[in-house]
Amino acid sequence: MERTYLMIKPDGVQRGLIGEIVGRFERKGLKLVGAKLMNVSLERAERHYAEHKGKDFYEMLLKFITAGPVFAMVWEGDQAVGLCRALIGKTNALEAAPGTIRSDFAIHTNFNLIHGSDSQDNAEREIGIFFTEEELVPYDK
Ligand code: CMP
């Protein structure tokens, strides 16, 4: 069983797409084990995007992700990391396959609605940045 970290970014929250996006993962059959609406501090944003430090889009990324509330989530299921990435689509909306979240709703790489962990190691690291273990709800379904 895998866990992954997903975060609807400020553009997704502001456009009223939380329900639409959450519904896609629910209908896929994944299990929501943690969720909260929150503002991201600069310190958290820097930890989360540490691997992008120094890249030309890094400062813009920090500014964007701290600009308004995000909807942070932890989802669980077999191959949750890969399945969620598949539903989200490629980073560049132009390359995202039809039917993916980014293809259906995003037009810009910087404002691409949602983040999804790209590996199990990063998923655990990112979950640790945004959630305490007590905030994750274990249940059988
Ligand atoms: P995300 O999955 O949150 O991870 C890093 C983010 O940086 C990415 O989504 C994009 O929003 C943003 N970004 C901007 N430009 C690029 C780029 N050239 N390559 C990758 N990510 C980029």
Automatic annotation (TrEMBL):
Database matches in SUPFAM superfamilies: Nucleoside diphosphate kinase, NDK
Q: Which domain of life is it from?
A: Bacteria
A biological-process GO annotation: CTP biosynthetic process
Active-site residues per Swiss-Prot or TrEMBL entry: H115
Q: Which GO terms describe its cellular component?
A: cytoplasm
| UniProt-listed Enzyme Commission number(s) | 2.7.4.6
Q: Which PROSITE patterns match?
A: NDPK_LIKE
Cofactors demanded by this protein? Mg(2+)
Name by which UniProt lists this protein? Nucleoside diphosphate kinase
Q: Which gene encodes it?
A: ndk
